[in-house]
Structure formats: C-alpha cells, structure tokens
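In response to the reviewer comment on reproducibility (Comment 2.3), we provide here a single inverse folding case reported in full, input and output, so that an independent group could reproduce the run without further information from us. The structure tokens appear first.
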C-alpha cells in the first residue's frame, strides 16, 4: 500500500530528526590521532648517583595523541623512545648506560608507553595511567599533566616517577641503591597540532 506523499515526507523528516543527532554525537566522539611536533617536544629525566642528581634526555622519540579536554576519557596516546639516543652530556656515561646491565640497547632498543585511561583533575590538570615497557618489562605508571593551548598547538607538560630496578635498569653490582637511587623522575613535554 502506497503512503500519501505528505505522510511519507513527515516520516522521512521524523527519521532524520532521530538519526542525525546520534550520528553527530558519534562523529564528535571520534578523536583524531595527531603526531607530536617533535621540535617542540622533549623527554628529560633526573637520576641520582651518590646523592648527586644527574640530568639527561632522549634525543629521538615519536608519538601520536588523540586528546579532547572535554572528553579526556576517550584519550589514546602512544609513544616510543629510541633508548640509544640517550644524552647524559658524557660520552663515557652514555656508552656505559647502553650496555646490557643498564638499558641493554642492543637487545631492547625501544621503550614504549601507551595510555590505558585519562581523567580530568580540574583547572587544565589531568592524570594519565598507562603501561610503560622497558627491556621487555611492562609496568603501570601514573603521570599527572597540564594542558595549555595557543597558536593552534596543544602542549602537554607532565612527569612521573619510575623504579629502575622494576625494569632491570642497573643489574648486578649496579642494583645497589646506595650508589644509584632506585627512583628516577621523568619529565615530558609533548606538543600536538589543534585542528
């Protein structure tokens, strides 16, 4: 049985009115993966040897982030770090820390981090939980961070602490925490485009 034209038109409008908001909401929840702007990003760390802080950084790393401050729970972020790019401002120190007892760069050249959850803390502050993998060992880390925006860029600044012995960084005689402290502070800044 053929519906009258006016009834058909009303039915189409009703369906559109019901479906379009759902499609729009679904599209709004799909966050775009953006590659970090490498020249505006950094990963630094502070270790302690014989009670003296030693600062270093990694020169080579990459990452992708999908982040919406309005919906942080939908965030996904993945980062990889070339451990061979470590910079301790000392050629001797860099050679030593790349060896098997420390980072074992030959066996495990890349460290990785992937978020499992992100929540808002208020005032542009957030907290990321994720899995950090170094030397084939994965551990959960919690990283508080802040977000600022300007000039079509979003900048994430944060930090977290890790226990080096949980990742087998400094084995054998170097597992003595009186010589090299177990705790390492990692500071990061990641900048991504805002579309």
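Designed residues, in position order:
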């Amino acid at each position: 049985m053929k519906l009258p034209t006016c009834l058909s038109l009303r039915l189409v409008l009703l369906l559109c009115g019901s479906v379009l908001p759902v499609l729009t909401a679904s599209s709004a929840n799909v966050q775009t993966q953006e590659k970090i702007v490498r020249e505006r990003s950094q990963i630094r760390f502070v270790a302690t040897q014989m009670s003296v802080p030693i600062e270093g950084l990694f020169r080579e790393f990459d990452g992708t982030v999908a982040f919406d401050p309005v919906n942080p729970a939908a965030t996904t972020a993945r980062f990889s770090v070339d451990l061979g790019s470590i910079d301790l401002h000392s050629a001797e120190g860099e050679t030593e820390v790349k060896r098997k007892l420390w980072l074992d760069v030959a066996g495990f050249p890349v460290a990785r981090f992937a978020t499992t959850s992100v929540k808002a803390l208020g005032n542009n502050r957030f907290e990321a939980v994720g899995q950090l993998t170094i030397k084939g060992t994965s551990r959960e880390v919690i990283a508080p961070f802040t977000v600022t925006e300007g000039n079509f860029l979003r900048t994430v600044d944060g930090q977290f602490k890790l226990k080096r012995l949980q990742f087998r960084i400094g084995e054998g005689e170097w597992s003595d925490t009186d010589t090299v402290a177990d705790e390492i502070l990692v500071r990061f800044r990641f900048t991504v485009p805002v579309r």
